[in-house]
Amino acid sequence: MLKQEIEDGQASLADPSFRHDVLRGFEMRPRAIPARWFYDRRGSELFEAITDLPEYYPTRTETAILQACCGEIAAIAGAGRAVVEFGSGSSTKTPILLQAVDPAAYVPIDISGDFLRESSSLLAAAFPGLTVLPLEADFMKPIALPLQIAATPKLGFFPGSTIGNMVPHSSVDLLRAMKASLGEGAMLVIGMDRIKDPAVLEAAYDDAQGVTAAFNLNLLERINRELDGTIPIATFRHRAIWNDDRSRIEMHLEALADVAFGIEGRPFAMAAGETIHTENSHKYGPRDARMLLRAGGWTPVAEWTDPAGLFAVILAEA
Ligand code: AVJ
User: Fold this and answer.
1) Which positions fall inside the Histidine-specific methyltransferase SAM-dependent domain (predicted)?
2) Quick check: CB of 159 below 6 Å from ligand 1?
3) Which ipTM value was assigned to this complex?
4) What does the pLDDT look like over 223-273, one tens digit per residue?
5) Do the Cβ atoms of 253 and 276 come closer than 8 Å?
C-alpha cells in the first residue's frame, strides 16, 4: 500500500538511499547514478519490454542455452541440491533449471521483498511440492541461508548477465560472497554476455523503438516524482556507448542544452553535452569469463554457448 502511494506520487516518502545516491551522483564528476535505481514499477515494465526487443539478444539467447544445457547441468551437479537464486525469479529462466535439477529446495534471494513475494508465489504454484524459502537480503554480502538446508549442497543460479552491471573488482567481491554464502561443495550456474561486434552491442542498448531510451529516461522521471525534481526531461537524450578499453556498454543521459533544475530544493546545472552515467554492462570473452570466476574463488567445470557465441552459461564449482 505504501509503495503504491509513493509510486502514484501521493506521498513524499522517498527511499533514503535513492535520495542519497541521486544527490551524490549529481555532485560527482563525471555524474553517475547506480543502475539499481532503474527498477521502479515503470522501469521493471520497461525492462520486461526490452527483453522482447529484436535487438536485445541476451534474454532469448540465454533462455535457449539453458533449455539445451540444463540436463547436462543436472547430470554434473547431481541430485538433491538446493537451488539458490541471486535475484528473485527471472520468471522464464528459473523454471527451466528447476525442472531439470529437481532440487531439494529453492531459495530466491532479493533485496526487494515485493518482487520476492511475487515471484516466489508464482514458482510455488508452478512447482507444487517444492520447498520455496524466499530470503529478503542484499546478496553482495555473505548471507546466512535457512537452517533447513544447512546440510544440503547448494547450486547457485545467477543468470541474465547481471554480473555485467558491476565493475570487475565488485564482481570478484560478489563471487566470493556467493561462495561464502553457498558453502562447502557448492556449484554455480552463471550467465555472462560475450564481447561482440560493437554495432550489435550498441543496437541492443539503443533499440529502434526507443524502449531502452524510455527505460533510461524513466530514471529522470523517477527523480522528478519521488525527489521533487524539476528536471526538464525533453532536454535529455539516451546514449549507449561501447567503451572498448573497459569492455563494456555504458548508458548515459546527455543534456542537449545548458539546463538548470532542482532536486529536493537543491539547485543543479549541466552544460550542453554533459552526461549522467547510468549503467555499465560489462562483456566478457571466454578466457575473461573463466579468469573472473577463478579470481572470485570458483573453478569453471563446463560452459555452453549459442551457435553464434553471443552469450555464455558457465557451470563452476567452489
Ligand atoms: C539486467 C543488467 C542484465 O545490462 O543487459 C538492458 C539491463 N540495460 N538494457 C543488461 C539493461 C539496458 C541488463 N541487465
Assistant:
1) 18-317
2) no
3) 0.99
4) 999 999 999 999 999 999 999 999 999 999 999 999 999 999 999 999 999
5) yes
C-alpha cell of residue 32: 553517475
Residue 227 CB burial class (10 angstroms; 0-12, 13-18, ≥19): buried
Q: How many residues comprise the chain? A: 318
> What nine digits make up the cell of 91?
520468471
d(CA 12, CA 192): 38
Q: Find out whether the beta carbon of 165 lies less than 6 Å from any atom of ligand 1.
A: yes
CA distance linking residue 78 with residue 22, whole number of Å: 45
Ligand 1 nearest-atom number relative to CA 215: 12
State residue 89's pLDDT score: 62
Q: Is the pLDDT of residue 85 over 90?
A: yes
Q: Which residue's CA is minimally distant from atom 10 of ligand 1?
A: 281
Task: Tell me the C-alpha distance between 284 and 290, whole Å.
Answer: 9
The atom of ligand 1 lying closest to the CA of 160 is: 3
Tell me: pLDDT of 6 over 90: no
> Is the dihedral angle over the CA atoms 148, 120, 14, 267 positive or is it negative?
positive
- pLDDT tens, residue by residue, 10-19: 445 678 999 9
Enter the pTM of the model.
0.93
Angstrom distances, CA of residue 173 to CA of 33, 138, 177: 20, 13, 6
How does DSSP assign 218-243, residue by residue?
HHHHHHHHHTT----GGGEEEEEEEE
Nearest CA among 88, 112, 55, 219 for reference residue 162: 88
